TrEMBL record:
One of its GO terms (molecular function) is ATP binding. The keyword Nucleotide-binding applies. Keywords: ATP-binding, Nucleotide-binding. SUPFAM superfamilies: P-loop containing nucleoside triphosphate hydrolases (SSF52540). It comes from Antribacter soli. This is ATP-binding protein. Pfam families: AAA_33. InterPro entries: P-loop_NTPase. The keyword ATP-binding applies.
Length: 180
């Protein structure tokens, strides 16, 4: 069965670090970095955290989800790294073309996310108000009952986070069926 694992959360939650470690656990595997698809926007790109970027963001994320689904349908384990809030998961999931996927939200404390966004090197996103806003969006969605698995007690050790995610997958706690 094709396998797609979506690891999401607000900026600074540790997605990029843990998804790289997770993708190295399977063979064959591919790491689809959602942010890379925003890099394809050549002219007229709107910063994705602004409200007026909604249509651009939707188009870009659906293109990334279609690519992730195609890799998975080809028998390659896919780890997706990107901001896919529960409010957008149904559209994302349908665009993959798959019947099921695994979905994990990383939710360390807000202060951790803000600190990571402030101190990370080589990442284009450093907007603290946008980080706070996206964190609160995720927090509201989690409080309303998010699908998949929510990891709020995020260990500091990357291997421990990856182990926790794999255990949730094995237990079926992160499994989401795609509704057409």
């Amino acid at each position: 069965m094709p396998q797609l694992l979506v690891v999401t959360g607000p900026p600074g939650s540790g997605k990029s670090t843990v998804t790289a470690a997770l993708a190295d656990r399977w063979e064959p595997s591919v790491l689809v970095e959602g942010d890379a698809f925003f890099g394809f926007l050549r002219r007229g790109a709107i910063p994705p955290w602004l409200p007026e970027a909604h249509t651009q963001n939707e188009t870009t994320v659906l293109a990334a989800s279609a690519a992730a689904g195609r890799f998975a349908a080809g028998g390659i384990t896919v780890v997706y790294d990107g901001v896919i809030g529960p409010w957008f998961l149904p559209d994302f999931a349908r665009a993959t073309g798959l019947d099921v996927l695994d979905y994990v939200i990383l939710m360390p404390p807000l202060e951790t996310c803000l600190d990571r966004v402030t101190t990370r090197v080589g990442h284009g996103f450093t907007d603290l108000p946008a980080t706070r806003h996206m964190y609160l969006d995720f927090a509201r969605a989690v409080a309303d009952g998010s699908p998949g698995h929510v990891l709020t007690d995020v260990p500091d050790d990357v291997t421990a986070v990856a182990d926790t995610i794999c255990a949730a997958m094995e237990a079926g706690a992160s499994r989401v069926e795609v509704r057409r």
